[in-house]
Amino acid sequence: MNKHSIKIQDGYFGALEEDEISLVDIAKVLVKRWPWFAIVFMAVLATGFSLIFLYNNNSHEYLSIYRVAESSPGNPLISLKSTGEKAEVYYKGLVVNDFLAQKNVKALSFPFDIEVADNSGMIIAKSRSSVKDNVKIESIRTIHKMFFSMIVKEEGLVHGKKVEILSRKIESAEKALELLSESANLNVVEFSIQYMDQIAQAKNDLATLNSGEILQLAQVQPEESKKALMIAVVGMLAFMSGIMAPFLAEFGARVRHALREK
After folding, report:
1. CA distances in angstroms from 156 to 159, 205, 251, listed in the order given
2. How far apart are the C-alpha atoms of 130 and 125, rounded to whole Å?
3. Inter-residue contact 176 to 133 (CB < 8 Å)
4. How many angstroms separate the Cα of 150 from the Cα of each of 74, 91, 160, 214?
5. Which site from 83, 126, 206, 261 is most exposed, i.e. has the minimal number of CB atoms within 10 Å?
6. Rounded mean pLDDT of 90-100?
7. At 126, phi and psi to the nearest 5?
8. Of all helices (H) and strands (E), which one includes residue 150?
9. What φ, ψ does residue 59 adopt, rounded to 5°?
10. Is 172 left (phi over 0), alpha (psi -120 to 50) or beta?
11. What is the mean pLDDT of the segment spanning 116-129?
12. Tens of pLDDT, residues 155-165
């Protein structure tokens, strides 16, 4: 390796060392320009908290929750997927159209969203309104009630038919059991056991059969968890903005100094 190559390498590594960012230099900038950090941090923090305060005090989310009818705990009487799809596609549109016709308006003045919680067997209606707009809040209650009334009606028909079938099954088995008790048939014991099992099973199915129920109607949804998340995001954004501010200020100062030298 000749002397020229050694010089080139030395120059190359020297340039690399000059381009390296020193933690000491970063610390110097932060110490030198700390007022920029404080000002930007406090400004972003104050703005963010103000927006959070206004957001949480001007409007609230109103939730209505309906628990679907069940043939047994955890087993919907009607497929939850089927009920959910029908609720979102058919019932929602029908209810909105009826509501608009009643109020003689062209569009809803508030959001109206439907969610289906597959894991809990719940259908949820969501809307948002200002806490001071009593007319809008009452409209939310009305449309939520109209929506769930349609589901209650359909599930009520299915539930009623199921109750009727089970009741008839019990009645039929009890009559057959009564006739067997008067019979001289040698197999009366075997048949009696079968009918008693049928009666017990039907009564158990009837006992575990639950009708659909509106658990809450247009109640204010607590938003503490959402508020805490928003505060955390604002705090992080304020800190990051504060960290960037001293370096931007230093960069601007060096640019101005370079321009003055020219």
Report:
1. 5, 17, 71
2. 17
3. no
4. 22, 7, 15, 12
5. 261
6. 91
7. -125, 140
8. helix 134-181
9. -145, 155
10. alpha
11. 85
12. 999 999 999 99
